[in-house]
Every structure is written in structure tokens, then in C-alpha cells.
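Quick check before the chapter quiz. The format below is the same one you will see on the exam, so make sure you can read both the input and the output lines.
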Amino acid sequence: MGRKQVRARKYVYLCIAGVMSILLVGCASSEKVKVEIKERGERRQDRNLRSQEFLNRRDFEEALKECRKILSLPSPESPKDRALFHIGLIYAHPENPKRDYGKSFDAFKKLTKDYPHSPLADEARAWIGVFLENERLIQRNEKLSQSNEKLSQTNEKLSQTVEKLNQVIEKSKQVDIEIEEKKREKPK
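Here is the expected output.
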């Protein structure tokens, strides 16, 4: 009977050892996965930092390339919101020779749509507001320019009319002078 208890204990110890080894291997591999995920995140962060550095150096093409690399990553954990924000800034930058406010607007709009809870979403909404206000002012300026053009044309027509009236007045004065002279020439 003593041998059966020893065997049972050995079996229990063996099972415990097996479970412990599985847990240790599992923990080790889960740590490895965590490290890989962290490294991928750091690489994404590095790309984001690189795009910011390129932007600071006014190398707009390279900054765009880095941002597009981030956007092409399959993971939803990547800083795509920051990449979209940088794209918006790059296209709106006044020193960018390929400045394109439409593309900038689209990047900010996509950020607010796809990442509404991003800390950058409010800034993107502010940029969108600036673009919309700018567009409204451009349209207003175009209307004022059109009105100004019409007023200029009207002013030109009025000037021509005034000139014609002045000519008529001069002719009328000339006729009056001639009539007065003829009245004087008539014998009494």
C-alpha cells in the first residue's frame, strides 16, 4: 500500500512539473511576443519621429514617405492618426513648393473621421475650420471682385456718357454764341 501512495505522489509531482514547464515556456514566449510588439511599436514611433524630423528640416518629400509607410502598416495600433496629421501639416506648410490645401484638408478630414478620439482630432478640426473659413473668404473675395468689375464697367459707361454730354453742352454753347452773333449783326 505504501508503494501506491509513493507512485501517486510521483505522478502528482510529475504533473505539477509538466504544468509548471508549460507555464514557464508560455510565459517566456508571451514575453517574447510582448517584446516583439513593443519593438514594432518603437519602430512605428521611430518612423513618426523621422517624419517629424524631415518636416522640421523642410524635406517634405521624405516626411511624406515616412508618413505613408506608417499608413501602410496593417496594425491598427500604429500611430496612423499622427501620420495623417503630419500629412495635413506637410501639404499646408507655406514653404512646401508642392503645397496643396485640398490634400491637407482631406488628411485632416480622414483623421477626424477614422480617429475621432485621437488627441489630434481637435487640432485637425481646427485646421478644417480654418480651411473652410478661408474658402468662404475666397468666394466672398471673388464675388467682391466681380462686383468691382461690374462697377468699373458702369463707371466707364458713365464717364463716356458724361463726356458725350459735355460735348453736347459745348456744341450748345457754340450754337448759342453763333445765335448771339447773328442777332448782333442784324441791322437795326
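If your answer matched, good. The radius of gyration is 41 Å.
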